[in-house]
Amino acid sequence: MAPTTDSAQRIQELKQFDEAKTGVKGLVDSGITSIPSIFINPPEVLETLKPSRYTGAEIPTIDLTGVNIPGHREKIVDQIKSAASTVGFFQVINHGVPLEAFDSAIAAVGAFHELPGEVKAPLYKRGVEGVSLKSNQDLFHSKAAYWRDTLMVQFDPKPADPKEIPEVCREQVLEYHRQTLPVAELLLGLLSEGLGLSTGRLKELTLIGGQTFVGNYYPYCPQPDLTIGFRSHTDPGVLTLLIQDDMGGLQVKYKEGWVDLKPVPGAIVINIGDLLQIVSNEEYKSVNHRVLAQSSPEPRISIATFYNPGAVEDVYGPLPELISPEKPALYREFTCKEYFTKFFTKEVDSTSQPNHFRK
Fold first, then answer.
1. How distant, in Å, are the alpha carbons of 21, 99, 177, 214, 259 from that of 93?
2. Are residues 303 and 106 in contact, defined by beta-carbon separation less than 8 angstroms?
3. Three-class SS of residue 164?
4. Per-residue model confidence as pLDDT tens digits over 130-165
5. Which residue has the higher pLDDT, 199 or 342?
6. Residue 4's pLDDT band (boundaries 50, 70, 90)?
7. Nearest-10 Cα torsion for 337, 342, 346, 349
8. Residue 286: half-sphere exposure toward Cβ, Cα within 13 Å
9. Which of 82, 102, 155, 184 is 20 to 30 Å from 91 at the Cα level?
């Protein structure tokens, strides 16, 4: 059956946006006063943008001071376990990374995105290898586009050549990654202990051998009530570490509403990914989250590092230690390659990735 005029026009608009290679920032720089139709979300999404009755109190902030001191460590493990098994999100402070590293990385990511479009265009591509500029990873799979551009740098298992990272942010991106990797390793150990396992059990699975840095830029949106900065989704990997500026806009699904995850100076936001939910046999929860479009003239900038397995042929499923007659395995086994192939061929949305691998 031939596509309708509307669908044919939409495909043409998607191609025009993609082929311009300037992303959402390019639209803003062109002086638009209304958003293109491809960004207008369906009514059922827009209806949820109304203020929630829930507050940010449900997202805990956990102090890592004394994490290596007996007695203190057990309390921190309990706090992390509680957050990971209920809300799926928490923030950590006193993690050892200096605030200057955050501030300089945020500023550098902003400087990159504010370069002229023709300077950034050579980095614009759909693949995930190396260094790339992206806007709407699932552009041709989704019902509506979202209002965000992203600088992506692959660190492991196939690290990008540092010379490929734009000079305007190269030093800051490399330093940020160097500073925050030990935090991810520490948290993986604490999460492992929270499952009643040894500190190194999850690390043995090479669960964070793959590391991807993303510098997100949410520019001013002339019609924030018609679109979204990034739609509701769960992260497919193991663990995500995120820092954000003070603009706000990140929301976490809680019960039947949405909770604003308000920025805490110097804090790192941690969330559980789908793969850790599977490996933990749902002891830990991966939950939906989203970012609202910015009505402020100032952009929102965030930096996320996604930690994933490093070997595509490795096999994953619920850990044998967490399976019992009372709680049998909830998921089948699969290779890392199969898992992420599924993720990259579907829309980034609230359809949970783990559901595709349930028994």
1. 38, 11, 17, 21, 20
2. yes
3. helix
4. 999 999 988 888 889 999 999 999 998 889 999 999
5. 199
6. very low
7. -100
8. 25
9. 155
- Which residue reads 């991966």 in tokens? 286
Q: Are 176 and 268 in contact (CB under 8 A)?
A: no
CA–CA dist 80, 88 (Å, integer): 10
In whole angstroms, what is the distance from residue 228 CA to residue 148 CA? Answer: 9
Query: Three-state secondary structure along the chain?
Result: CCCCHHHHHHHHHHHHHHHHCCHHHHHHHCCCCCCCHHHCCCHHHHHHHCCCCCCHHHCCEEECCCCCCCCHHHHHHHHHHHHHHHCCEEEEECCCCCHHHHHHHHHHHHHHHCCCHHHHHHHECCCCCCEEEECCCCCCCCCCCCCCEEEEEEEECCCCCHHHCCCCCHHHHHHHHHHHHHHHHHHHHHHHHHCCCCCCHHHHCCCCCEEEEEEEEECECCCCCCCCCEEEECCCCCEEEEEECCCCCEEEEECCEEEECCCCCCCEEEEECHHHHHHCCCCCCCCCEEECCECCCCCEEEEEEEEECCCCCCEECCCHHHCCCCCCCCECCEEHHHHHHHHCCCCCCCCCHHHHHEC
What's the whole-number mean pLDDT along residues 284-293? 96
In 48-87 the beta strands, taken as DSSP E runs, fall at 61-63
CA distances from 184 to 48, 206, 324 (A): 33, 13, 29
Q: For residue 219, which amino acid is it?
A: P
Provide the mean pLDDT of the chain: 92
Q: Are 288 and 253 in contact (CB under 8 A)?
A: yes
Q: What is the pLDDT of residues 42-61, one digit of tens each?
A: 999 999 987 777 776 789 99
Q: Where are the alpha helices (DSSP H) in 114-169?
A: 117-120
pLDDT tier for residue 1 given thresholds of 50, 70 and 90: very low
Q: How far, in Å, CA of 5 to CA of 346, rounded?
A: 24
Task: Fill in the amino acid letter for 245.
Answer: D
